[in-house]
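Usage

Read records sequentially. Each one opens with the input sequence:
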Amino acid sequence: MVSARVSDSSRVISIAAPTLATQAAIWRLAHETDNSNAYLLWCTDYFDQSLIAWINGQLAGFVVAGELRSGSDTARIVDIAVSASFRRSFIVPPLLDQLVTKLVGRGISYVESVLKSTDSDLRTDLQSLADRWQAAVDISDSQDPNAPATTAFKVGPLRRRSSEVLTRPTELP
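and closes with the structure output:
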């Protein structure tokens, strides 16, 4: 189980893999953030490559990722969601750091994601992830005039770091 805890002056952030005991809370957040498909993906394909974040004991967000194919060194970030109550809590960077730590431990060297043109916060978060992990970012815009405007981000190569951003394993609420 991946688990980390970070404290600052006003909050405690806990990040861990989802469990059967957290399913109801995850479903509520998936529904609140209009990410019901992410919940279904968890149940079928990505449960083992997902993380959830709690702030002061309340479910704040999640990230869902999946390997592109067996034996691939690349994982795709399928979905990230943050509860409206925690949108300005800066939960995404530690959530992404723990996800990457988990994936690198499994031999993944790259993460990618496809973003809509309206996902400016996530663009910033992925660029920041690359900076923190001292990794390159490959960015390519969709060229299909008949499709919605999207941008593909690929971050890597990612390597195990000597000191992780999040430390002190702990039990979750």
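Summary fields computed downstream for this record:
- The radius of gyration is 15 Å.
- The first helix runs from residue 23 to 32.
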